[in-house]
Structures are given as C-alpha cells and as structure tokens.
Amino acid sequence: MDLALVTGGSRGIGRATALLLAQAGYRVAINYRQRAAEAAQVVAEIEAQGGSAFAVQADIAEEAQVVRMFEELDRHGTLRVLVNNAGILFTQCRVEALTAERIQRVFATNVTGSFICCREAVKRMSTQHGGQGGAIVNVSSAAARTGSPNEYVDYAASKGAMDTLTKGLSLEVATQGIRVNGVRPGPIYTDMHADGGEPGRVDRVASGIPMGRGGQPDEIAQAIVWLASEAASYVTGTIIDAAGGR
Ligand code: NAD
C-alpha cells in the first residue's frame, strides 16, 4: 500500500495534512515525538473515516531515531509521500539574547531533521534505486521571507535553509521520479504560538495580513496535499506562499 509520512503529525498543520492524505487514499504514518495520545487520536479519527493510519515515534532531530522510523515504515508499505512538517520555535527575543544552544536546537529539528528525512525518503522513492518515485513537501514559513526581526531570526533563518533545501534537492532528484516542493504558511491558528510564549500571536498580527485574518491548519494542508498529488505532476522546486497575501 502507498504510504505517506507526516512528521509532527499529531496536531496542528500536520494533523490536518494527515487527515487529507488519508482521504486521498494513502496509509498515513503519523510521526510524533512525545504526544503518543494525540497521535493515537489522529489515527482513530482517520480510521473512523474509513482510512488507514498508524503512529510512529521518533524525535526527528535524532538521526538514529529517524533511520529506525523509516525502517519501521518499510514494514507497512511503499513510501510515496513525505511531508516535513515538524518544526519548533522558542519565545520571542532579540538577537542579543540568542544562545548557541537555542539556535542549534531550532536548526536540529527544522533543518537537520528535515534533511535526514529527505535523505531516507529519497533512498526509498528514487527510481534509480528501484523505487516508484514520490513527492516531498517541506513546510517552511513566511518568516523565511520576512526574517522575523525582534521575534525569532533563528527560526526564520532555519526556514530559509529549508527553502534552499527544497530548491537544491528538487534539482538533484528531478530525473529520479521525485518532486520536491514547499509551502510557506503565514500565521496559522495552532498551538505552536502558545508553545512560543504568545498564544494570541495570530490575532495580534492578523491586521498586517492583506486578507485581514490568520489562517486555519486546513488551508495549509490543502496546499501541501495538492503539491503531493498527481495534479501537481509537473511541479517541482516550487514553494507556495499560503499567507493571506503577505
Ligand atoms: P505545532 O506545534 O502544532 O505542530 C508541530 C508538531 O511538530 C508538534 O506535534 C510537535 O510535537 C512536532 N515536533 C516538533 N519537534 C519535533 C521533533 N524534533 N520530532 C518530531 N516531532 C516534532 O505547530 P504547527 O503550527 O502545526 O506547525 C507545523 C509546521 O508549520 C512547523 O514546521 C511550523 O514551523 C510551520 N509553520 C507554522 C505557522 C503557524 O503560524 N502555526 C506558520 C508558518 C509555518
């Protein structure tokens, strides 16, 4: 059966994406780091809708855990879609307060984790290695364009690196049956902002969005799933801004 892996799939944009991928007919692997109960709930939701899913634990910042996760996936079917969705940010601060430890933690998940997941996915999807091809979608951020001054330049820089990964990898694997694209969400109503110390952030910045509002997880999931689908069969190296016109 064709598999789709969503990293950080237990809540927010990842959860919405997992639900849509299941509706599209994939058996969905819901990766989670710590939230086993939430991941199990997403699996149950998918199964209640007649879909197929399972939860798979791994901290994507840990290479050995990522390798083990992909080996576990191999027992469930053929990987055709990878959504690099897991991402973190920390409390807002100016550059004077940034520590090396914080920068390294942000990059370990958002950049290194996404890289390692791409590597493992390419090994399995590549038609040059006997695979059936596939699609990778990297969840970046509008921050990659704005740089998020006075908030989290570390997070913004990590998303800029993800965009460069999307561009470079898309060209490297273009003849191997693998498309690599990305989505840059604007402010979306998820729990990530509460984790970053400002639960009301989306409402605060909404007035600066041309459409005058924040987005919903499903509005990002739709773009991700379109890029992963056959409808986008001639699209690679593209990063869609889903940010209300920002
Ligand atoms: P979220 O915090 O609700 O979801 C992120 C998920 O990733 C969580 O389940 C978290 O546990 C998981 N995760 C974090 N680090 C992990 C790791 N090392 N290994 C495995 N899982 C890990 O946030 P969200 O808003 O749904 O964010 C999803 C993606 O969208 C992120 O990459 C984020 O940067 C991006 N994004 C979000 C917004 C927004 O406004 N919410 C805007 C732009 C981009």
Question: Which key phrases capture this entry?
Answer:
Rossmann fold, 246 residues, oxidoreductase, NAD(P)-dependent oxidoreductase, 7 strands, oxidoreductase activity, acting on CH-OH group of donors, SDR_fam, 17% strand, alpha/beta
Tell me what you see in this structure.
The structure is a single chain. The mean pLDDT is 97. The chain has 9 helices and 7 strands. Helix 1 links the parallel strand 1 and strand 2 (27-32). Helix 4 packs parallel to helix 6. The chain has helices spanning 12-23, 36-48, 63-74, 100-125, 143-146, 153-172, 192-195, 201-206, 217-228; strands at residues 2-6, 27-32, 52-57, 78-84, 134-139, 178-185, 239-242. The protein is globular and about 50 Å long. Strands 3-2-1-4-5-6-7 form a 7-stranded parallel sheet, sandwiched between helices. With 246 residues, the protein is of the alpha/beta class. It has a single domain, classed as Rossmann fold (3-Layer(aba) Sandwich).
Give a short synopsis of this structure.
One of its GO terms (molecular function) is oxidoreductase activity, acting on CH-OH group of donors. The chain is an alpha/beta fold and 246 residues long.
